Amino acid sequence: MSTAIKIFQGAFGRVSLLDMSKPLVIHAHHHCHALIKISGVDSSFLVKGRSQPLTKDSVVLINAWEPHAYEHTPSGEGRCILMALYLETAWLSKVLRSLTVSGHPQFFPKPCAALPAGARLLVNSLAAEMLVSQEIASDILEGRIFDLFMATAERHSSLRDSSQLFSSLRSNTMDPRIRRAVARMRENLDYGENFTELAAESGLSRAHFFELFRRCTNLTPAVYANALKVESAIAELCKPDMRIGDISYNVGFSAPGHFTRFFRQHLGITPGEYRRVVDLMDDGIDSLL
Fold first, then answer.
1. pLDDT per residue over 110-140, tens digit each?
2. Which residues sit opposite 53 in a β-bridge?
3. Dist. CA 142–CA 10, nearest whole Å
4. Can you tell me the distance from the alpha carbon of 22 to that of 76, in angstroms, rounded to the nearest whole number?
5. How far apart, in whole angstroms, are the C-alpha atoms of residue 221 and residue 236?
6. Rounded to an integer, what distance in angstroms lies between the CA atom of residue 245 and that of residue 256?
7. Strand spans (E) along the chain
8. Rounded distance, CA 49 to CA 261, Å?
């Protein structure tokens, strides 16, 4: 069974130290996402339809809203301790304006790259801090996360030639029917697997709606809706007065057990475990979605 060792969460997004032993379903995040192995067995992530190896010498890089899945190992045996960075584009661009393009779907041209030696030192240091420290100052943590991201992304992203991505971001307009559908999905997390009603509200057949949605977002409506549910659940789990049973209903589940299974399939851990191991660094959690 996979477990979470430590999670820091704040305006920067999340950084998680995870002990993985089971695969995850295909999912997506609005974050700029990087995964680095700390110790244990080599594993892999499914990105762009291919297995991307996660070893001590590699880093898996996933663009915002890019579908992916943790595969673990072919035999299903062993454990892989990894660090997962889920970084908010707004935070990155506040630290360095050119990182506005970190939210572009082509920011990372390749999903797997060699981990620079400097990044290995930084990730090992941050992992050790997460294992032993009772607390860490927010500004120190943010500095370490940013340094690690830059040590990895500066070499393996489109940051050095960002002008074309800037132009693409400005000119990228989503079909207004899909934009309205996305707004409805954010308002109502209870759409489930049946999107016929949403397609009809959009003035499209179900087949045309699915095709246009994928073309605009690179995701199926179900994967997109599940991503919204995960982030909404995480935001509510960070509120100590919210009961997990209430959270499950708020994000569209008829029973807490269904919510717990869904959460584990996407993150590898239960909602209760997430709440136990997360450290909130500031009040930035309400802007997750």
1. 999 999 999 999 999 999 999 887 778 999 9
2. 44
3. 9
4. 7
5. 23
6. 5
7. 3-10, 13-20, 32-40, 43-47, 50-54, 58-62, 68-72, 80-87, 112-114, 278-280
8. 25
Q: Residue ranges per domain, the chain? A: 3-161, 171-287
Secondary structure E strands in 21-108: 32-40, 43-47, 50-54, 58-62, 68-72, 80-87
Task: Name the CATH superfamily, with its identifier, for domain 3-161.
Answer: Jelly Rolls (2.60.120.10)
Q: In the structure encoding, which two tokens stand for residue 5, read together?
A: 């060792």
Positions of the chain with pLDDT under 70: 169-172, 192-193, 283-289
Q: Rounded distance, CA 213 to CA 216, Å?
A: 5
* Gap between the Cα atoms of 7 and 176, Å rounded: 37
Which amino acid belongs to residue 24?
A: L
Query: Residue 199 has which token pair?
Result: 């397609």
pTM of the model: 0.92
Dig out the tokens for 6 from the structure. 């430590």
d(Cα 2, Cα 5) in Å, to the nearest integer? 10
CB-based burial label for 281 (10 Å; 0-12, 13-18, 19+): buried
CATH tag, 171-287: 1.10.10.60
